[in-house]
């Protein structure tokens, strides 16, 4: 595991985790999984002001989870899944093997105990 991550990488991680920490922002990401939406279309799905949704979108853009393409007066918001893939590679994948092994051993122990207890 890389313990010598740069300050810039750590700052990027912090922005990403802050962005994901908010349920409204996670819901926006869920909406964008189905395709790009205008800011107005996103705002229409929430019980918040357009200004409030813009603040959430700006946090998502800062974390590079959303890419904005302007088309005239419209602002199209697109999901960028790459930071999420990087989170998976950095934080989930390294723990999958050891965790799965421990869970399997626990399952086997529980099954043996249940058989012996009959």
Kindly describe this structure.
There is one protein chain. The chain has 118 residues and is mainly alpha-helical. It has helices spanning 7-20, 23-32, 39-43, 50-62, 82-116; strands at 37-38, 66-71, 74-79. Helix content is 65%, strand content 12%. The radius of gyration is 21 Å and the shape is elongated. It has a three-stranded antiparallel sheet with strand order 1-3-2. It has a single domain, classed as Orthogonal Bundle (Arc Repressor Mutant, subunit A), CATH 1.10.10.
Q: What keyword list fits this structure?
A:
Arc Repressor Mutant, subunit A, 118 residues, 5 helices
Please render the helix and strand layout as text:
Layout: H1 7-20, H2 23-32, E1 37-38, H3 39-43, H4 50-62, E2 66-71, E3 74-79, H5 82-116
Antiparallel strand pairs: 1-3, 2-3
Count, helices? 5
Estimate the helix proportion, in percent.
55-70%
- Principal-axis shape equals elongated
Which H/E pattern describes the elements? HHEHHEEH
What is the CATH domain class?
Answer: Mainly Alpha
Runs in which pLDDT lies below 50 for 5 or more consecutive residues are none
Q: Write out the CATH superfamily name.
A: Winged helix-like DNA-binding domain superfamily/Winged helix DNA-binding domain
Largest sheet composition: 3 strands, antiparallel
- Straight-line distance between termini: 45 Å
Approximately how much beta-strand content do the residues carry? 5-15%
Predict the CATH topology: Arc Repressor Mutant, subunit A
Q: Provide the number of structural domains.
A: 1
**Within the largest sheet, what's the order of strands?**
1-3-2
- Whole-number radius of gyration? 21 Å
Structural class based on helices, strands and sheet pairing? mainly alpha
- What is the correct CATH architecture? Orthogonal Bundle
Mean model confidence by pLDDT: 90
Number of separate strands: 3
């Amino acid at each position: 595991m890389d313990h010598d991550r740069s300050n810039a990488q750590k700052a990027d991680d912090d922005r990403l985790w802050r962005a994901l920490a908010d349920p409204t922002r996670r819901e926006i990401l869920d909406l964008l999984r189905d395709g790009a939406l205008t800011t107005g279309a996103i705002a229409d799905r929430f019980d918040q002001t357009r200004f409030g949704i813009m603040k959430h979108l700006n946090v998502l853009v800062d974390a590079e989870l959303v890419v904005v393409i302007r088309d005239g007066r419209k602002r199209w918001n697109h999901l960028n899944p790459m930071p999420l893939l990087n989170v998976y590679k950095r934080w989930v994948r390294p723990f999958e093997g050891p965790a799965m092994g421990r869970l399997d051993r626990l399952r086997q122990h529980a099954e043996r105990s249940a058989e012996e207890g009959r």
